[in-house]
Inverse folding.
C-alpha cells in the first residue's frame, strides 16, 4: 500500500512519515508546493539514513498534495485547522474512490488567534465532519491521531506510548488505519465509534496541551484502561 | 474533613461513597428526599460491613441534599445533567463559603432523549460552568471524575484504574479533591487546567460509553501517558 501524508511538511505529518517509513512503509509527502514536499522527503531520508541501513525501512518521496493524494491507497491529512477546508478542496478530485482518508485535524483556537489549549467548534460538528462535507460522498474517512503529539511522535530514539482513537463509519477503514498504527512500536488503536465521536476526540489535543502546560512537560498522551482485555471491535447495535 | 455526596443515591455517587468510606472518610449521602438518603447510607453501611470490620473504615450517614451540603467541607455533586441546575439551585444557599465543590456532571444527550455516547452543549460551555453560574461567586469549584465509570468504581472487589482529570480555577481546591482521589487505590489525578477545560473533559464520558459499546465491555477509563514522571502541577503562565 502506498501512503500519502498531505501536509507532511508540518510537525505532525513529518513525524508520522518518519515512523511509517521506519516501519517499512512507502510514503509520499505532500505539500502545497511540490518543491517543499521534495525537500521534506530528502530531510526524512537523511534522518532515517535511508540507503545506508539495509533493506528494513521503506521509502519516502515528496510532491504536491494533489499528486500525493492521487497515488495513495491511504491518505493521512495532517494540516492546521485554519487551512483544512482549503486543502480538502484542493485534493477532493484527486483522492481515489477506494482510498482510505485519515484526518488528524484538531480545531485548535490558534486558527483564530486563540490558544492551543482551547478549541473552536466547527460548523459541521468536528474538523473530521467538515472534511466529510467536502470530500465526495462515500469517501472512506477516518479521524484519528489527535492524542498523539508531534513531539513524542518525532522523537525517534524513544517509543511513543498511547492509544490512537479512531472514529468513522467504516469499520474496515478503521482497521486499515489501525494496522498502520500498530506498526509504530507501543502505539495502539481504539475504535471510538462513528465519525461524530471526533467532536470529543479532536479536543483532546487541547486538553493534553493544557496538561503539558500545567506540568511543564511535553508529549502527554492518552491510553484507555483495560485495553489488553478487550478483543476486537464489534458492530454496535443501532443508536 | 466531612464529605457530602449530593445525589449519592445514584450509581456514580453511591460508588464514590463506598470507595471513600472504605478509605476511612466520613461521608454524608444527600438525596432529594431525606429518607432515601438515609436508606442509601444504610445500604452502604451494610455493603461495607461497617461496625463488624474494626476501625479502619469511615462512617456514612444519609440526609437531604441541602443538609448534606450544609455540613460538608467537600461537596461532591453527582447528579444527571437533566436535574443538575435544579439541584444546584437547591443547595446554593447551603454550601459553606469555604467548601470545595466537585461537580462530576456530564451533559449526556440522554437528558433530552438522546444516547449516552452523545452529549449536548450547555449554554455556559460545560455542566461545570453551569454549576459555577448558579453557585455564589467565589465558590471553590472543581470538575472531575467524568472518565471514571460508576460500574468499575462500585466494583469494590477490584481496584479502579485510571486518571481523574480535575478542572478548576483554584489550584488548592484541585489539590483537596485530588487528595481524596489518591485515597482510592490505583486512581490518580491530573490537573487538567482551568474550569473551562471541563468542556473537553466532560464529554469523555460519552466517548468511553462509545468504546464500551463497540467492544462490548464495561468500565473503560482513561490514563495519561508518562504521568509517573511529571511531578506536581505548576502555575501556568497567563493564557
Amino acid at each position: 500500500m502506498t501512503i500519502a501524508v498531505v501536509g507532511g511538511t508540518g510537525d505532525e505529518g513529518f513525524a508520522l512519515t518518519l515512523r511509517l517509513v521506519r516501519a517499512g512503509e512507502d510514503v509520499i509527502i505532500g505539500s502545497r508546493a511540490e518543491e517543499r514536499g521534495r525537500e521534506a522527503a530528502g530531510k526524512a531520508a537523511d534522518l532515517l539514513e535511508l540507503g545506508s541501513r539495509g533493506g528494513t525501512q521503506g521509502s519516502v518521496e515528496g510532491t504536491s498534495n494533489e499528486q500525493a493524494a492521487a497515488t495513495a491507497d491511504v491518505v493521512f491529512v495532517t494540516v492546521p485547522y485554519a487551512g483544512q477546508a482549503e486543502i480538502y478542496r484542493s485534493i477532493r478530485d484527486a483522492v481515489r474512490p477506494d482510498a482510505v482518508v485519515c484526518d488528524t485535524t484538531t480545531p485548535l483556537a490558534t486558527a483564530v488567534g486563540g490558544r492551543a489549549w482551547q478549541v473552536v467548534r466547527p460548523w459541521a460538528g468536528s474538523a473530521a465532519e467538515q472534511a466529510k462535507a467536502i470530500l465526495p460522498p462515500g469517501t472512506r474517512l477516518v479521524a484519528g491521531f489527535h492524542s498523539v503529539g508531534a513531539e513524542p511522535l518525532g522523537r525517534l530514539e524513544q517509543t511513543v506510548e498511547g492509544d490512537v482513537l479512531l472514529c468513522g463509519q467504516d469499520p474496515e477503514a478503521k482497521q486499515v488505519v489501525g494496522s498502520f498504527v500498530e506498526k509504530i512500536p507501543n502505539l495502539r488503536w481504539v475504535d471510538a465509534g462513528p465519525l461524530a465521536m471526533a467532536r470529543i476526540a479532536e479536543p483532546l489535543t487541547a486538553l493534553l496541551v493544557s496538561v503539558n502546560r500545567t506540568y511543564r512537560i511535553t508529549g502527554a498522551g492518552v491510553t484507555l484502561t483495560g485495553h489488553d482485555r478487550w478483543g476486537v471491535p464489534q458492530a454496535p447495535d443501532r443508536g
